[in-house]
Specification:
The chain is α/β, with parallel strands linked by helices and 459 residues long. It folds into 3 domains: 97 residues, Rossmann fold, CATH 3.40.50; 201 residues, Mur-like, catalytic domain (UDP-N-acetylmuramoyl-L-alanine:D-glutamate ligase), CATH 3.40.1190.10; 143 residues, Mur ligase, C-terminal domain (Protein-Tyrosine Phosphatase, Chain A), CATH 3.90.190. One of its GO terms (cellular component) is cytoplasm.
Amino acid sequence: MKDKRWFFQKNILVLGLAKSGLAAAKTLKQLGANVTVNEAKNLQGSVEEEELRQWNITLVSGGHPLHLVDDTLDYIVKNPGIRYDNPIVKIAVEKKLPVVTEIELADIIGEGDILAITGSNGKTTTTTLIYEMLQKSGVPSHLAGNIGNVACEVAENTKKDDVMVTEVSSFQLKGTEEFHPRTSVLLNIFDAHLDYHGGRADYEYSKGKIFKNMKKEDSAIYNAEDPVVTKLAHQSFASLVPFSVHGHTTDGAYVKDDVLYFRGEEIITVEEAALPGKHNQENMLAAIAAAIIHGANKSEIRKVLMDFNGIEHRLQFVGSLHGRKVYNDSKATNILSTQKAIEAFTNPVVLLAGGLDRGNEFDELIPSLKNVKAAVFYGETKDKLEQAGKSAGITKIKKTNTLDEAVHHAYFFTEEDDVLLLSPACASWDQFKTFEERGAAFLQAVEKIKLEVKSDLSG
């Protein structure tokens, strides 16, 4: 295991700048390393170039020159988004140079414990739940990784008894060698990012690296109903803490008779918890287990679960609109996410979906669409989604060009106690730069309807 002193006077290349690359470069410089940053975009004359100059860090931008991987190079810290078929990465791997992501660095320099969370779906919700449970219980904790601040920046300021609650992706985990969380959570594994990983096997292997370096005094929290997750967890030396929404285990966290338990002790009922759906029960169970293991108070855990309205743009309850419950799930950029969103509700659902056409059909969505009473489809995929909706037996369907129009029509399909749900099943890029921008546009359209309906009622 490396320690901070190992980096002193080592020659290190930070490949890819962005937020995490800048943080890694500064951290390494503080540890006494000779740091070069390489960024594909031309940053000549930029604010970033000036900042790196002030830190006495060399910047090479406008491409990836292969001469950077020479015989004097000791280590590469790679932006997670840079693929392994990048020529610099390929040469480094051939030379057997360590190529790691920034979370590896965070683990080396941090004084506190890392509590790491990953999974194909649900990791942001679970990470946030754990962090809030620990915070409200007075456990010194920090939010890091894909949400919160860059992990190595957070790690620099942790103390021995601190907990760094860190969301990690398969991209980050693939670039680890000695990464050693004291508690790891693996929620689920579905097909995702297979283009980056080159296939399902590498994706599973990368997710499983969250358990790789754990010891018997560590805790591996895993979904006992996912056979791939279970297999990966059992390859670890850690103490195993399973969770199950169908009560298939009583060793860890589980649901029985619509009550969430941890090791036989009742925590909260399904009805009391704010988050809807089986997938959120999985997230809550994992969060309960992780929070209790790190000293959270059960009464504070209950309060968090009762008050939690979700992550912004991820099945986020945004309020009631004349008796209709409105949910913003703009982050649902694929079919699987929209399936889970629809299936989270027992009340009738009026669905808004659509967006960028990536060439796929929506046949996999048809079984879930049978729970939808009416739908408005918009954007590039409106015709394909209409076909799926008709195949599912939806009789009330409207097509529009824009999301704003879609929200207007969707509202008038709803009745009191219905759910008005934006869950697009598509990327946002036909009309919006990001899913966040799309979610904000949805909320604006809902506010406009509030004013329109209020005006109609008063007139």
